[in-house]
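Box 3.1. Reading complex inputs
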Amino acid sequence: MKKPSQKKQSAIDYTIVPKDLAGHLFNVTVTVANPDPDGQVFALPAWIPGSYMIREFARNIVRIRAESGEGEARVVALTKLDKHAWRAAPTAGPLTLHYEVYAWDLSVRAAHLDQTHGFFNGTSVFLRVLGQETLAHRVDIQRPLDPSAKTWRVATAMPEAGARRYGFGVYAAANYDELIDHPVEMGDFELATFEAHGVAHDIVITGRVPNLDMARLQADLKAICETQIAFFEPETRRAPLGRYVFMTMAVGDGYGGLEHRASTALICARADLPSLATPKAAEPSEGYLRFLGLCSHEYFHTWNVKRIKPAVFAPYDLQAENYTPLLWLFEGFTSYYDDLMLVRAGIIGEATYLKLQAKTIGGVLRGSGRLKQSVADSSFDAWSKYYRQDENSPNAIISYYTKGSLIALAFDLTIRARTNGARSLDDIMLALWERYGRDFYNGAGRGVTEQEVEALFDEVSGLKLKSMFERYVRGTDDLPLAKLYAPLGVKLSDERKGGKVSLDAGIGRDPLGAKLTQVHEGGAAHQAGLSALDVVIAIDGLRVNGNPPNVDTLLARYRVGDRVTVHAFRRDELMAFDVTLQADRVPCIALSQAVAGRKSAAIKRPSAV
Ligand code: ZN
């Protein structure tokens, strides 16, 4: 049999139309000029890189059909292969899929569409054409017909291929991996642009934010971006991108970000953004600092995880979990540097920085899970544990973000101390960048294995650091931070008040009293038999109520060792518990400069290189 004549195809072509704003539906088509002669398979990713959880985005495909031929289109049968994939019956000519995607997930991970704006990640809307992922991919982003969208613009770091900047029209990506790494925002957003070492950076803000102080945001982000670019490329100050977009959805209450190769999608509380109505303080407010820390974090990922990557992410397997024991390095070290970059950029001072660090240390010491799960295991099991936390998580797991950032601190302080300041963690990051990151998208892309990471730490520092990996990365030992801080004149203390008593449980709101959100292992509540999700209605015969519940006020009249009866509902059964009150075990860490005027070396570049 003669093979059908094949037209040379240069690209996979998509169109995406925000079709029904009120119904939250995108209409998407994908056209394949040379479908697989045995039947072309299409699949939507099961997860989005950067957020390590199986999300089954294909569940939001509402309708799907296939046709072939130009002009007189012929219906092509589609067979569902599994929850993510379809196979089209063999066809000779070009094959087009038409499908509808329901987009009503207000997060940075999926897609969202209504009369105010549209947002999508490619992982939610662009079916992958199996076997043709390395071809160029084009997408025609069309303006909704709805009159409310007449003034809408488009923001994305995806290169234009016919569209004007911020316009609807055709955009292009070199391959499928790039296509899904440029989220797209459309709407009447606020827009500002600044240059950081010669590269244009857009700030895109969606959502109503009265009196947004865009000038302050621009100045602060410029300082953060320039500091990070100069950190990774101290000589050339060359950013590894032509352009960058911070796309932000401002809402009443929310927090989150997802990193991409040339942009980040963020969600934040409106109140965290700077306002023209507030007097300008020297340092950012707590909320604004949280937002800048988030921006700094996602921007640092431009190097650390979007280019320096774990070997199993190069390439990603988009249909299943990608297990790596290295998220402590990619998320934890990014968490260490996100705040550090705020100091180096001059946005916060050392006192504020030490406060942030003290908070992280207290958080890590809080749960007994830290003694059971290593950060290597926490990384590996992120898919089923860190990303799927429940009431028992503090007793069972450790965060590779927070403990990972303390491991970075411990390595930094250790390397500085043992090399007399000649080397630091900065040198490790730069070596990772030079060897694995800089040329990742220039064809030389290869990820780093855990063995290579460990060898690189020793080689670059000139030290033997194996025992630190054994104890703190693969083991569950607490980090000796007080000892490591001491030579810098920084004193670490736990300022727990001895007299305060507590149930040692998380207290949440409930119409009947107080719901125990978590019960900490070994604490007073646990020892008395109380359980997470129990609703406490009385302590020693006195009613628990209020919003937030008055548990602390009631307990304030008791001493350590006092016994009280606690009444609680479990399901719909009233139960009584005999509780012996214990001293509050929540760590209250403080870091203070013991020697006035002495600068914490962790904040500065090493003086000798
Ligand atoms: Zn991150």
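In summary: The radius of gyration is 27 Å.
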